Amino acid sequence: MDQDEDDDSAPCFAHLLVDGHVVDPRTRRDVAAFRKAERQRLYGLRKTLSVSDRAAAETSIAQGIDDVLDDPTGQTIAAYWPIRGEPDLRRWMAQAHEHGARIALPVVVGRDAPVGFHLWSPGCAMERGIWNIPVPRNVMPVVPDVVIVPLLGVDDALFRLGNGGGYYDRTLVRLPGPRRVIGVGYGFSRMTTIYPMPWDVPMDVIVLDDGTIQHRQ
Ligand SMILES: Nc1nc2c(c(=O)[nH]1)N(C=O)[C@@H](CNc1ccc(C(=O)N[C@@H](CCC(=O)O)C(=O)O)cc1)CN2
Ligand SMILES: Nc1ncnc2c1ncn2[C@@H]1O[C@H](COP(=O)(O)OP(=O)(O)OP(=O)(O)O)[C@@H](O)[C@H]1O
């Protein structure tokens, strides 16, 4: 017997809630298993990229972001410090900083909490944060106008598959004011669907290394 559906001695439905969203437990389990397998497949594809593939991808993605952003001057832009074979945009970040953008990095502050965004500048002191991800040592929190998110997978409706912590989804729903979410990744990241769940937040536009620039319909 399945405890989730058939235990009528349990009047509490809290186990069906994910961050306030009602979710069927069996669906949640199936989707989590699907995403886990897809993550492994996509991490594997990233590992096949050569140094020159990566360099070319970074140039192409940087160009695509410039096309999408227009003038970064005066904008507060959250980018990221690359992990797990993500495109390395640090050169683009330094250039945008030089052109007058404020650049911030995501900082995990707690397991199920939204991430914070802390100002970064080229060469600033860094330290290892949660998950061992480098973060700026000096804590200067900001609210970004633009969030550049690394995508592991992306589906036709621009829902993102990430590393599986749910951090960006939790963060983006809570960001005050208008913000633009730009997903960046490799051409092989495309999927038909990630089976979006109520908490998934679609991106506004994606920039892939194969030259794809796709805006959400
Ligand atoms: N470069 C970069 N920085 C980032 C993010 C990112 O995706 N890329 N994040 C964007 O969110 C946050 C970190 N997100 C992370 C999410 C999960 C795991 C992780 O290790 N997950 C487990 C599996 C979790 C699960 O399936 O329950 C693992 O892979 O072992 C690490 C970092 C903040 N900083
Ligand atoms: N508000 C929320 N937003 C996102 N995920 C949440 C939320 N609350 C709880 N979760 C849980 O966190 C996990 C997030 O999984 P999901 O596949 O969405 O991660 P992801 O978007 O790939 O990760 P990340 O953004 O860290 O790269 C799920 O198991 C989900 O149940």
Automatic annotation (TrEMBL):
Its EC number is 6.3.3.2. Its cofactor is Mg(2+). One of its GO terms (biological process) is tetrahydrofolate interconversion. GO terms for molecular function: 5-formyltetrahydrofolate cyclo-ligase activity; ATP binding; metal ion binding. Keywords: ATP-binding, Magnesium, Metal-binding, Nucleotide-binding. The keyword Magnesium applies. It comes from the Bacteria. It catalyses: (6S)-5-formyl-5,6,7,8-tetrahydrofolate + ATP = (6R)-5,10-methenyltetrahydrofolate + ADP + phosphate. It is an enzyme of class 6 (ligase). The keyword Magnesium applies. Belongs to the 5-formyltetrahydrofolate cyclo-ligase family. NCBIfam families: MTHFS_bact. This is 5-formyltetrahydrofolate cyclo-ligase. The lineage of its organism: Bacteria, Pseudomonadati, Pseudomonadota, Alphaproteobacteria, Rhodobacterales.
